[in-house]
Amino acid sequence: MISLVDGSTAQINGNKQFHAASTGKLPALYYTQKMILEKKVDGNKLLTYTDAINQMSGAYMRGGAGVLQSQPYGKKFSLNTIMNWTAKYSDNQGTNFLAYYASNKYDAAMKKEISTIMGRNWTALFYVNAKDNAMMLEAIYNQGGKLITDMSNTVYDNQRIPKYIPVQVAHKIGDVNDLRHDAGIIYSKEPYVLSVLTQNYQSYEKISVLSKKIYDILK
C-alpha cells in the first residue's frame, strides 16, 4: 500500500516475486499513455491489427482475455481504443498492440523507464512483486490522462479490490493458474494504492474483504 498524499507505505511480503499474470500489462498501458501525453504518438491515429504484434519478444499469447482477438487482421484501430480495451477487458492482443505501436516493442528505453519507476532492473516482463505494481500505479496516478478513466470502468469492477469500495477505483486484475491478483488506485479522501498478489487459488472475495478493511481504516 502507498499513500498518494504523503508517500507512506505498508507491506506484507511486498518483495515476493510472482508471475504477473495480467497485472503485467501495466507497463505497456503506462508507457502508451506517456507517449500519447508527450505527443510522441497520436492516440487517435488508426493503426493496423496484424499478427506481427504477437511475434515480438514479451508478447502475450494469442487468444486469452479480450475482444481484439475476434477482429480480423488488417482492420485498423486507434491506440486510445485499444488502451480502453486493454484496461476494460484485460485484452491480451490489445496489450501486444500497445507494446508494438507505442511501447517500442519493450526496447531498452522502455525497460529503462519502467526500471526507474520500479526502482530495480526490470527485464523479466512477466514477473513482478506487489511493490512493483504499486509503484506502477503511483506513476499512472501522477501522469493522469484517460487511462485512469479506462481502468475505472472495467468488466471486473464487481470483484476484488473495488467490490465493497464506495469510491472510484482504477485497477488492473490478473489471473493465471492458482494466482489471483489485483492492484488499484483508490480515490478516497486521501487517495492510496493497494496491490495484492496471491497464490494457491485464493478467492476474489478474500481480496475484496481485505480491501474493504483497509479502506475503512484509511477513509
Overview of this protein structure:
This protein has 219 residues and is α+β, with helices and mostly antiparallel strands. It has one domain: 3-Layer(aba) Sandwich (Beta-lactamase). The protein contains 7 helices and 8 strands, in the order ββαββαααβααβββα. Strands 1-8-7-6 form a 4-stranded antiparallel sheet, with helices on both faces. It has a two-stranded antiparallel sheet with strand order 2-5. A two-stranded antiparallel sheet has the order 3-4. A hairpin with a 5-residue loop joins β7 and β8. It is globular, with a radius of gyration of 16 Å. The mean pLDDT is 97.
Write the layout of secondary structure elements.
Blueprint: E1 2-3, E2 18-19, H1 26-37, E3 46-48, E4 76-78, H2 79-89, H3 92-101, H4 108-118, E5 127-128, H5 130-143, H6 147-151, E6 169-176, E7 179-186, E8 192-198, H7 204-218
Helix pairs in contact: 1-3, 1-5, 2-3
* Tally of structural domains: 1
- Low-pLDDT parts are none
Helix content: 25-40%
> With helices defined by DSSP (H or I, 4 residues minimum), what is the helix count?
7
Multimeric state: single chain
State the total count of DSSP E strands. Answer: 8
SSE sequence, one letter per element: EEHEEHHHEHHEEEH
Q: How would a crystallographer describe the biggest sheet?
A: 4 strands, antiparallel
Strand content: 15-25%
- Structural class determined from secondary elements: alpha+beta
CATH homologous superfamily name?
DD-peptidase/beta-lactamase superfamily
The CATH architecture can be given as: 3-Layer(aba) Sandwich
CATH class assignment: Alpha Beta
Termini separation (Å)? 14 Å
CATH fold group: Beta-lactamase
Sum up the overall morphology in one term. globular
* Physical arrangement of strands within the biggest beta sheet: 1-8-7-6
The average pLDDT score comes to: 97
C-alpha Rg, in Å?
Answer: 16 Å
